[in-house]
């Protein structure tokens, strides 16, 4: 089994590159996956020096169950963080969407090509669960993983993959959690997180909030129940972060 590379981060769901910029500033090498060709081109231009130095690799593909194919991908011109391989995801709220075609790749193929990262961040509309399923099936394990907690199956897959510590992070409140100084992951990089960042990760998350998957599942169900009853009270959306106890030691 391949050991994780301590200086490598995967940004699955590159978007406009805010997370990638943060990881690069912290001194990590980054493999960034993004299906939209224009987003890939813009980030590649912006970080041309980092690409030239071998610190950033942009992979212009969608993560799907089968790699090496060409599929439809749906672009939302108004909410460009809702782009998805699923038309219904991209068109939420009645938005008009545009169809393009993109190549595909799988998580094991990325591991084969670039190695296993210390941290894997995944935020891809409609495919986070597939990423978790592929991670479980592959057997190679990053030290830390985060995904949008859009289904209970994602939580179950991560637990089955051998992660025994987890925490839920409300993505609406990143602005209140600046990076710790001194840094506990990589180098210190000052940043004002926004709703388009994934935020802190790994050992930089609040140590007191790492808990069991049983507790995380209960909190997730509580949040989802309140969200269905009153979305104004259950503000924001949740990411799940997963780790093993030895990675946190």
TrEMBL record:
The keyword Transport is assigned to this record: no
Start and end residues of each Methyltransferase FkbM domain: 11-163
Top-level taxon of the source organism: Bacteria
GO biological process: methylation
InterPro entries assigned to the protein according to its UniProt record, in alphabetical order: FkbM_mtfrase, SAM-dependent_MTases_sf
UniProt keywords, alphabetically: Methyltransferase, Transferase
Molecular function via GO: methyltransferase activity
NCBIfam families: fkbM_fam
Name of this protein: FkbM family methyltransferase
């Amino acid at each position: 089994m391949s050991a994780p590379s301590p200086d490598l981060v995967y940004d699955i769901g590159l978007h406009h590159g805010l997370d990638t910029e943060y990881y690069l500033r912290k001194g990590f090498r980054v493999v960034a996956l993004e299906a939209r060709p224009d987003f890939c081109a813009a980030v590649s231009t912006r970080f041309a020096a980092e690409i030239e130095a071998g610190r950033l690799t942009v992979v212009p593909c969608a993560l799907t169950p089968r790699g090496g194919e060409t599929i439809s991908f749906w672009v939302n011109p108004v909410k460009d963080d809702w782009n998805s391989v699923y038309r219904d995801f991209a068109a939420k709220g009645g938005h008009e969407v545009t169809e393009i075609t993109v190549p595909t790749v799988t998580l094991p193929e990325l591991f084969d090509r670039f190695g296993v990262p210390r941290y894997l961040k995944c935020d891809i509309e409609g495919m986070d669960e597939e990423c978790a399923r592929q991670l479980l099936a592959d057997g190679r394990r990053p030290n830390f993983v985060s995904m949008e907690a859009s289904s209970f199956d994602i939580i179950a897959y991560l637990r089955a993959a051998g992660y025994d510590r987890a925490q839920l992070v409300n993505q609406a409140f990143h602005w209140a959690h600046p990076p710790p100084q001194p840094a506990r992951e990589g180098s210190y990089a000052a940043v004002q997180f926004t709703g388009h960042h994934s935020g802190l990760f790994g050992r930089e998350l609040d140590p007191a909030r790492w808990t069991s998957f049983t507790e995380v599942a209960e909190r997730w169900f509580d949040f989802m129940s309140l969200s269905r009853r009153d979305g104004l009270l259950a503000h924001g959306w949740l990411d799940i972060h997963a780790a093993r106890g030895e990675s946190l030691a």
